Amino acid sequence: MIVILCHPDDVAALWLSETLQQLGVDGVELVAVEQLAFSRRIVYHLSGDGDSGRIELADGRVLRPETISGLVNRIQYLPTQHFANADPADRNYAAAELSAFVLAWINGVGGRVINPALPFALGGGGFQMPTLVQLASMAGLPTVPWRASTADVGPPEGGHHVGPSEAGHYFGPPEGGPYFGPPEGGPYFGPPEGGPYISTHAGIVFDGRLFGPLLPRGLQDACRQLAVLLGVPLLQVMLHQSPGLGWRFVNATGSVDFRIGGKPLALAIGRALARRIAA
Amino acid sequence: MILLAGIPDESPLALVTDALDEIGANHRTFDQRRAAAADVELEIADAAGGGAIGGTLTLDGERIPLREITGMYVRLMDDQFLPAMAGLPAHAAERRHCRRVHELLLRFADIAPGRVLNRPTDSGSNHSKPFQAQAIRAAGFDIPDTLITNDAGAAREFIERAWSEQSGVIYKSVSGVRSIVRRVETRDLARLEQIRWCPTQFQRQVAGTDIRVHVVGDAAFAATILSDATDYRYAARDIGVEPDVVACTLDADVRALCVGLARRLSLPLAGIDLRRTPDGRYVCFEVNPSPAFSFYENRAGLPIANGIARYLAGEVQ
């Protein structure tokens, strides 16, 4: 069984599921994160011999860690509406418990997990901008200086995050160039109104291969090297190109848009996850 | 220069401060309670500059170049609970400044080129005890038989089987929140249906002697703990008797497993909870990435703070 664990509106994951099936990959199961969080029954054993157990979903499907040959992890958040009636302290506790369980459950899957869950990022592949810029520079990507200061006017801090959250921004490109602000959010930034033409490019690294639109050879190597330095097999690298400024590294994420890599990427993922491909 | 971050009179931080003084190491302390008098500028150079880290930390008017910081001991409490912040509204300027100081210091600690005990991103494994147990098992230690379930029937079966084999069962949080260990008693069976709302962790109790190991780099400091309490950390409260904590020497293979486990978790400083069973096995329960080692240092006379100071100063691996 190959599980694609995603939110119902994750069009990239839905595309991957459909494409894998078109490519003849057997046993692809689309599981909504909501189905996992609201599952009917959880029984999970850990011992010196390994992990076993079952999660029974409301639609009758059963997930067993030892029978999952591959899992594509696309969790952005864990829904906790079922704790809504608890008092805030209990609600937060229950949410932490559920998150801690899901982290271990994904980690305990017998097969390969693409985007292994991390303690600070259940969906894996979330990187801090200072780390990204530093490693992108080391990888040879065309970065611009990054700076953050307590003197900056930061984003509103409505909630509180003990874990990592972004702060800081790129210095804008050289004088006269556009300023994009924090390179957060989606992978695509359109050119600012009235600014010079800037095109956005994305390359996806998977298992050391680069997928997506053709990039110059030096950038291809640098994208692959960034994935190595980050220690991840799957990475989407976003770049800007403009006539005046050349190439600029913008951001990178493990939450990739599979459509950019097209069928060749889907096939590579299918081969990596499936024990057998029908055709 | 070595940077300490936390509450200066909190025992572990105070002990490390004293130890750094004793070895003559140059150090500064970021006092969380004085975050209002602190500023941070963090800079990453472009590709031509090789992504070098720059910027400054300002503490009470003293500007410290971040590149001069060669070691960090990070023992920050959650800044939202600092007394000066607790009563402020979420958008208060002081609170936002305090948050940003912490945020930037944590980001720096993640990428600082020197020795950091411990990097924040690497300190998350004990947010999930079963996730950590998987790493513990992979490092070569035994782990307790564990059931996580929201099914009362499965929990009852697990508990009654253990009881039938003269073993106890404990329950504790799956996450790092409300992390207190409790023994399952007969009266608890009547409320098992409550776990339907949230998966709950049950573990078969392991008989034996508690051992706490503090790993600092390649060094390991061990102590045995003798107590009749289910969770010796709360022995004074639960049974009215403080535990006995005595320094001990680990077998070389167990010591190597401890150092290897800490390394696997990318934690050069770790507090590892072991239990040596009557048949000589070592079962590992969890790894604390920010251990309150003063409890063990003060009772068992272990030179843990000295070990931390020397590690931060680069005197030992």
Describe this structure in words.
The complex is a heterodimer of chains A (279) and B (317). Chain A has 279 residues and is α/β, with parallel strands linked by helices. Chain A has 2 domains: 2-123 and 263-273, 3-Layer(aba) Sandwich (Rossmann fold), CATH 3.40.50; 129-148 and 168-254, D-amino Acid Aminotransferase, Chain A, domain 1 (2-Layer Sandwich), CATH 3.30.470. Helix content of chain A is 28%, strand content 24%. In chain A, the strands form 4 sheets. In chain A, strands 2-1-6-7 form a 4-stranded parallel sheet. In chain A, a hairpin with a 2-residue loop joins β10 and β11. In chain A, α1 (11-22) packs across α6 and α4 (129-139) packs across α5 (217-230). In chain A, 45% of the residues are buried. Mean pLDDT of chain A is 83; it is low at 155-191. Chain B is of the alpha+beta class. Chain B folds into 3 domains: 2-117, Rossmann fold; 124-140 and 207-301, ATP-grasp fold, B domain (D-amino Acid Aminotransferase, Chain A, domain 1, 2-Layer Sandwich), CATH 3.30.470; 146-204. Chain B has helices at residues 11-22, 83-86, 93-111, 129-138, 152-164, 235-239, 252-264, 294-300, 304-312, and strands spanning 2-6, 27-31, 38-44, 53-59, 62-65, 71-74, 115-117, 146-149, 169-172, 182-183, 200-204, 209-216, 219-226, 244-248, 269-276, 282-288. In chain B, the strands form 4 sheets. Chain B has a 5-stranded antiparallel sheet, sandwiched between helices. In chain B, α1 (11-22) packs across α9 (304-312). The radius of gyration of chain B is 22 Å and the shape is globular. The interface between A and B is large, with 64 and 64 residues.
The overall number of domains of chain A is 2
> What's the main sheet of chain A like?
4 strands, parallel
CATH class of the largest domain in chain A: Alpha Beta
Q: If you consult CATH, what is the topology of the largest domain in chain B?
A: Rossmann fold
| Strand order of the biggest β-sheet of chain A | 2-1-6-7
What's the number of extended β-strand segments of chain A?
13
* Proper CATH architecture of the largest domain in chain A: 3-Layer(aba) Sandwich
Span of the ends, CA to CA of chain B: 18 Å
Cα shape of chain B: globular
Percent strand of chain B = 25-35%
Q: What is the C-alpha radius of gyration of chain B, as a whole number of Å?
A: 22 Å
Number of strands of chain B: 16
